[in-house]
Amino acid sequence: MRRVDVVKLLDRCLSLYEEARKSRDRFSVSEVAGRFSRGRGKGAECGRRYHRRILQLDPYSAAYEEVWACPLPLAWRFRFGWLYGVADQVVFEKGVPTRVVEYKSYRDTRRSEEVQVSLYGLLVMFCFATRPRVFLYEDGRLRPLPGWEVIALTALSRALKG
Question: For residue 10, which of 68, 75, 87, 160 sits 20 to 30 Å off, Cα-Cα?
Answer without folding.
Answer: 160
